[in-house]
Description:
The protein is mainly α and 336 residues long. The protein has helices at residues 2-39, 46-66, 77-105, 110-132, 149-156, 166-188, 190-200, 202-207, 212-237, 242-247, 249-259, 264-281, 286-292, 311-325; strands spanning 145-147, 164-165.
Amino acid sequence: MDFLNALILLSNFVIVPSITYGSQLALGAIGVTLIYGVLRFANFAYGDLMAFGTMCVILFTWLLKSWGVNLGIFPTALLALPFGITLTIIVSLFFDKTVFEYYRNKKSSPVTFIVVSLGIMFVLNAVVRIIIGPNDIVFMDGSRFIISAVDFKEATGLLEGLTIKSTQVITIITTSLTCFLLFNFLNKTKTGKSMRAYSNNEDLALLSGIDPNKIILITWIIASILATIAGTLYGLDKSFKPFTYFNNLLPIFAATIVGGIGNPLGAFYGGFVIAFSEIALTYAYKKFIFYLLPFSSDSTNLIQYISTDYKFAISFAILVVVLIFKPQGIFKGKVI
C-alpha cells in the first residue's frame, strides 16, 4: 500500500508534469531546429513568437466567449487556435520578407542572423506587452480535472490522490498528433523530402530544381504553427505571462542541442530529457522516501533540497555538459 502511495505521489509531482512540460518543450524545440536546419541560424525570437501566438489565441478566446461561443468541457482556446496560428504565420512571414530576406540575399553570416533575431525578439516582446500587458492571464475554461485527488482517494482508499488535469491530457494528445503529422510530412511527402534535401545540401538541392523560396515559406509556416500550439498549451496548463516565454527559450534551446541541433526527432526527445531533469531534480523527495521506508516516520514536512529557482540553471548545466562532451547531441545533428 505504501508503495502505491509513493508511486501516486511521484506521478502527481514528477511523472505527469514532466510528460506535459516535455511535450510543450518538444514542440518548441522542433520549431527551433527546423529553422536552424533549413535557414541555418538560431532564432532567438522563437520564445516571443510563442508568446505572440498565444496572445492572439487569448484575444480570439475572449472574443468567442463574448459572443457566447464555447466548447463546453473543452477550453475555448482550442477553437481560437486556428485564428492565432494564422496571425502568427502572417507575422513570421512579414519579418522574413522585411528583415531576414534582406540578410539572406546578402549572404550574411549566421552571427548576423542571430543579432537580427534578437532585435525581432525585443520587438515582439514589446508588442505583446503593449497589447495584452505584462501580468499573468489565466484563459483556461471548461472542465479543469479529469481525475481529482478526492475522487481517487475515495475510489481506491489510498492516502495519496491522483490528479489529472484536462490541460495535461490535451497537451499530450495534441503534441502526439502534431508530431505524428509533422514527421509523416517530412518523411513521406515530396515537399517534406525537399526540405530535408535543402537542409542537407543547399547547392545540390538547387541543382535538383528545388525552389528555395517555397522551402523557406513552408519552414516559417510550420515553425509558426508549432510556436502557437506550444505556447497555447503551455499557457493553458499554467498561465500566460510574456516574460515566462522569454525564459522558456533556454530550456527550448537546451532541448534542441541535447537532441542534436537540426534533428526534429532529437529535439522531440530532448524536450523530455530537459523536462524530466528540471522537475525530477527540483522535487522534494522526503515524503516519497518515507513511504518506502520499512519503519514509520513523520513525512508531513516536505524539504526541498534543490529549489525550483534553480530549474533554468539545470537546463543550462545540461546544455554546457552536452556541448563539452557530446556536442552532436543524442542524435547526430543537422539532419531534417
